[in-house]
Design goal:
The protein is mostly helical. The protein has 2 helices and no strands. It is found in: Membrane.
């Protein structure tokens, strides 16, 4: 009954990845904006946020591809 369970997990994981890994640590650590650590953290956040966005698009694409061959109670 849950034909897209893996695809939905991928989509939720792609969106959940961004705030847990980058936004929350920067809010709690609060490095100075002039420090190298701040700019390194910011650049890592930008790169991996882009990867998370690409992963979300890929998950939606995979769901649309799986929807074409979906059959309820199919014998897999």
């Amino acid at each position: 009954m849950l034909p897209f369970f893996g695809d939905i997990n991928a989509l939720i994981g792609a969106f959940g990845f961004i705030p847990l890994d980058f936004i929350l640590p920067n809010m709690t650590f609060k490095p100075s904006k002039r420090s190298l650590v701040f700019w390194l953290n910011s650049s890592i956040a930008v790169v991996f946020s882009a990867i998370g966005a690409v992963a979300a698009v890929a998950a939606v694409r995979q769901m649309s591809l799986d929807a074409k061959t979906y059959r309820l109670f199919a014998n897999v």
